[in-house]
């Protein structure tokens, strides 16, 4: 009770010295001792000072009231200085005075009293032990927890209902997508649902070509932004190039269209993106549905009509197929199926075309040169006599050729370089659309359903009777490298990649194409053509026997770089790629450098060990001995690995070569 000097001291003294004695309370609820005022006055600081004379009654215990001095307990003077509560707590020299009935009574915080509060104020002592310090019983604890739980739930409800209101930066993250609510003992994170992007009604389309850097940049830009677009590759759809010229006035690509309106090329796209006007232009040009005069998307299953001419000898072949006695015959104690004798064919030609025997033999040689017919053993030209021949479609290897679909392609054969170029462009388009950015993984399921792959399969039939002898050495190298990689993709789709050793050997030898009238398996291409008819790893025989016509196409010298341009469909093989005849050598060096700078080699200087891909081991005859191999590899390593390897080779010590395990799983 604070009384200032400006207050009515007389009234306060009168109330304090009234007839009714003021009770003094101790620590506990005990009988009230009585006291009389012996003196009172005003102190210098303006507070009222009252002096009581207190007599202790019998049986009273005031252990809770501190004794100010050593006077007899029967009579004491207690000095009660009515001061501020802080001073009372600090001094702890006086007993607590019960407030007057006319003054407001203090109230304890809810839940902190074990029993209902009485009129007598009970002073709480400082705790001395754990047991005595427990001032709350279990009902009070339950009430406290319930109150806190209710306030906690109310806080969550208020926070969730006012997420759009501004909040304190310390409690809520300033991110527009995520809101954080920090409560006592719990952190609530509320993710705001992003607003759906405005749907575009129109169509984005662009004309492109295979292996075009600008077209690749446009394609990646649309993919990164999640935009649906239609790509029209004029290398895959040659007739669409005329449409491109009609719309833009040139054959330059990329040519981007928003509906029927031309946006431009890569330069125009970058300009709009950098200026921030691309979104507005897209909203303006794609707000309406695609009109009929916009570039039409390619349609699956329809081939472009091409101006193809039938071979001049097709009429002769049709007559021979009908008139010749094709049957099984015995030759050198062996049964030869579906064949005819050379003399029989000469007789048919003489009687049907009314020509001389010499002319008939000349026609037979032309048919053999254009691969309509072949000798049953494959090592003889056409002759008039008892030698046996058969048509290409009756050859025993035809059932294993996956580019043969019932009949021989009777159209006039196109140049092998032109057919190889078209195959390269279509396969490059497939890689750009259905492979990962690093070309390490292919989506074979999507490739098998694509229009590009369907057109490739149809195009592969033009290989039946092409003349491969007209190719130059670089053209031959690029042709067979590209053919191998395309055949592997076709084989994985049609028969799947084998798992066991025996199945793998069958996979690489049984999946064949008929090219130029001869069968070519994957093993024939690698070991027979590209490696100059060398034995395959762990094989005892060469791919081509003596007198095989395919030996004429074998490269005269083995180039070790070919092993880094061939992808056999596994995860440990080099990256799949296709080569151009003009730059095949430089492209092979780039492929080898990329392969070795990945994880194909590692150098452990402390162990003096070099870990290599097993491809080097399998074809060690193409690379040389161990030191020659390491010195050759240095040319294709980065500076760090090349320095380590040169250090090992230069100090004269022994260098161990360890070959890693090969991952035969499919690169899908």
From TrEMBL:
The source's domain of life comes to Eukaryota
Q: Which Gene3D superfamilies match?
A: Glutaredoxin (3.40.30.10), Winged helix-like DNA-binding domain superfamily/Winged helix DNA-binding domain (1.10.10.10)
Location of the region described as Disordered in the Swiss-Prot/TrEMBL record:
1-39, 56-76
Q: Which CDD domains match?
A: DEP
Q: Which InterPro entries match?
A: DEP_dom, DUF547, Glutaredoxin, Thioredoxin-like_sf, WH-like_DNA-bd_sf, WH_DNA-bd_sf
SUPFAM superfamilies under this entry?
Thioredoxin-like (SSF52833), Winged helix' DNA-binding domain (SSF46785)
One Pfam annotation, family name? DUF547
Which intervals hold domain DEP?
A: 320-393
GO:BP terms for this protein?
A: intracellular signal transduction
What this protein is called in its record is DEP domain-containing protein
Q: Species name for this entry? A: Trapa natans (Water chestnut)
């Amino acid at each position: 009770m604070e009384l200032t000097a400006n207050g009515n001291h007389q009234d306060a003294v009168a109330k304090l010295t009234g007839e009714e004695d003021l009770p003094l309370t101790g620590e506990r609820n005990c009988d009230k001792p009585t006291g009389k005022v012996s003196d009172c006055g005003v102190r210098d600081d303006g507070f009222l000072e009252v002096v009581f004379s207190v007599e202790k009654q019998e049986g009273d215990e005031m252990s809770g009231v501190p004794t100010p001095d050593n006077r007899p307990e029967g009579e004491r003077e207690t000095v009660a200085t009515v001061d501020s509560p802080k001073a009372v707590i600090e001094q702890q020299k006086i007993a607590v005075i019960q407030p007057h009935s006319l003054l407001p009574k203090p109230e304890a915080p809810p839940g902190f009293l074990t029993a209902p509060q009485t009129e007598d104020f009970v002073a709480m002592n400082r705790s001395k032990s754990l047991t005595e310090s427990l001032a709350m019983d279990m009902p009070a604890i339950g009430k406290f927890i319930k109150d806190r739980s209710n306030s906690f739930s109310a806080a969550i409800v208020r926070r969730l209902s006012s997420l759009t209101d501004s909040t304190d930066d310390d409690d809520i993250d300033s991110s527009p997508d995520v809101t954080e609510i920090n409560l006592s003992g719990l952190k609530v994170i509320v993710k705001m649902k992003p607003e759906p992007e405005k749907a575009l009604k129109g169509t984005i389309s662009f004309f492109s070509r295979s292996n075009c850097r600008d077209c690749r940049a446009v394609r990646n830009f649309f993919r990164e932004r999640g935009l649906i677009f239609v790509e029209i590759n004029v290398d895959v759809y040659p007739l669409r190039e005329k449409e491109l010229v009609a719309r833009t006035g040139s054959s330059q690509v990329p040519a981007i269209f928003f509906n029927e309106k031309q946006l431009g090329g890569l330069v125009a796209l970058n300009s709009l993106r950098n200026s921030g006007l691309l979104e507005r232009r897209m909203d303006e040009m794609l707000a309406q549905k695609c009109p009929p005069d916009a570039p039409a998307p390619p349609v699956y299953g329809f081939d472009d009509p091409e101006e193809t001419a039938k071979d001049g000898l097709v009429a002769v072949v049709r007559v021979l197929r009908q008139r010749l006695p094709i049957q099984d015959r015995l030759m050198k104690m062996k049964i030869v199926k579906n064949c005819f004798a050379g003399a029989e064919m000469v007789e048919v030609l003489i009687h049907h075309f009314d020509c001389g025997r010499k002319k008939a033999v000349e026609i037979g040689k032309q048919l053999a040169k254009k691969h309509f017919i072949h000798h049953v053993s494959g090592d003889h030209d056409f002759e008039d006599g008892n030698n046996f021949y058969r048509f290409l479609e009756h050859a025993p290897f035809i059932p294993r050729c996956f580019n043969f679909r019932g009949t021989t392609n009777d159209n006039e054969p196109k140049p092998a370089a032109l057919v190889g170029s078209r195959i390269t462009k279509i396969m490059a388009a497939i890689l750009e659309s259905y492979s990962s950015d690093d070309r390490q993984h292919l989506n074979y399921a999507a490739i098998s359903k694509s229009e590009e792959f369907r057109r490739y399969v149809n195009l592969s039939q033009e290989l039946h009777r092409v003349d491969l002898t007209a190719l130059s050495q670089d053209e031959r190298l690029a042709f067979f490298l590209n053919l191998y990689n395309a055949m592997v993709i076709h084989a994985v789709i049609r028969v799947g990649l084998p798992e066991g050793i025996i199945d793998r050997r069958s996979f690489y030898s049984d999946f064949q194409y008929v090219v130029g009238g001869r069968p070519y398996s994957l093993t024939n291409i690698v070991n027979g053509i590209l490696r100059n008819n060398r034995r395959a790893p762990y094989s005892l025989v060469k791919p081509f026997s003596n007198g095989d016509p395919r030996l004429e196409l074998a490269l005269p010298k083995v180039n070790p770089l070919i092993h880094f341009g061939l992808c056999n469909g596994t995860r440990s093989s080099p990256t799949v790629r296709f080569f151009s005849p003009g730059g095949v050598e430089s492209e092979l060096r780039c492929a080898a450098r990329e392969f070795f700078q990945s994880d194909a080699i590692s150098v452990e200087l402390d162990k003096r060990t070099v870990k290599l891909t097993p491809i080097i081991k399998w074809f060690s005859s193409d690379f040389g001995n161990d030191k020659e191999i390491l010195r050759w590899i240095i040319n294709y390593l980065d500076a760090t690995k090349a320095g380590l390897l040169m250090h090992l080779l230069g100090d004269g010590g022994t260098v161990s070569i360890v070959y890693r395990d090969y991952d035969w799983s499919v690169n899908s």
